[in-house]
Amino acid sequence: MGVVVIDRAAAGSLRSGKLGSRGGSFLALVGVILSAPAAAAPNRVASSAMVYSDDTDVAVFATTVEGAAEVGESITTNASYTVDVVSAASVDVVTSASPAGFEEVRHQARGSVGYEFGEGTKAVIDYGASVEPDFVGHGLSGSYAFDLLERNVTLSLGYALRYSVLGVSRARTLEHERTEHEASALWSEVLGRRTVLDVGATGGVSSGYLSNPYRLVRLYEPGAAVPSTAVPEALPELRSHATLSVRLRQRFADVWHGLFEYRLYGDGWGVWAHTASTRQTLSVFDETVLLSAELRGYLQSGAELHRARYETFPAVPNYRSADKELGGMRSVLGGIDAEWSLPLDGVEALRIGLGFDTLALSYSGFLPLASRLAFIGSLDATLEL
Amino acid sequence: MSFRPTHRLALAVWISVFGPGCVLVKPWERGELADRRMQVSIRPLHDGCHSHFLTPREGTRPTQDGGGGGCGCD
To answer: Which of A13, A39, A327 shows the shortest C-beta gap to B42?
Structure first.
């Protein structure tokens, strides 16, 4: 069956940054639940180190440890811990309320339990928490997956709830609350001996304080070069969203496997986004080495309330944001990675992975920064027991 | 009667999803599908790395993969 995967490294991060991206990982968690069939061994220990660096002086180092174990024949468990060390003094930081940039350490932990009721039916409960100087988040999710049509179809249904409180580091108080709900469904169907189709949909609502306490919006008099004042960002306290995704997994040859995916996103603020991606995997050296290449394109329209420049002074719009993530943007990610499977006495396998990616982002509605180029590297090891 | 391209795409998806009776694959024919290279995430830790850094940098929340954290994105 399409067993639910809880990917710690992926879903383990329960927040993102000092911005509306908080909670992204909550939805990511749902997404991970949607991502269906398990790739990892049920009994394993793994660790990874990841680094991100871009040309706007943002650097992130993240490391994750995780373990998974089967308990009896019906129960699977998983736990993970991730720590991020972030250093940022980027141009958009400088244009926000954190002119000196910042450095901080973030901790994230999560655990999940899965129970298989019988052949082809499984439920998973997952809890995660994230603690940072300006953010505390809790996420609880559950999913239920079952097979249909002589096990040619797996239907997965999920629900996730997240509650978080946030503030600004220097104030040392977490005064803002946010709640997020998301329901999801994934239909995975075997189309042939070498082909699987996944069709997924999600719908959700975020409510509470959805602004970024660090962001300022500058107000200008019409035609003025210098802002007259700056006021905090203000966004509606409700945001609904929906997504639809289609994914095709195909075996082209004994040593060549491919994945193609498209996702459409729309929300109540008027943001629309298209994501298209592909991954091609080649097995070499008697399948002891996997080489993968990935290409991903992302195109997003801006929110209706977003303005690159507010020439409204002295009037202050009720809702206001010049945030780059809420404006028009596009990104391209390309990367390659390799995994070596090494024989080891007493264990199933030791897998060592190494990946390099380049990420190029461009913003059409953010005056201080037009583009950003980033490098992402990762090294991981998994011991399958 | 003509269909707009979006309607044609929706129809194609609908047929492929809800018309599995034509393509039932027997259990003994699914060996290749069980290969880990056919999974959505071949290397979860590496895929998590992507999501870890991509999610906070886009205005929508990906519904596959996962991750947040590692922002530094203000």
So the answer is: A39
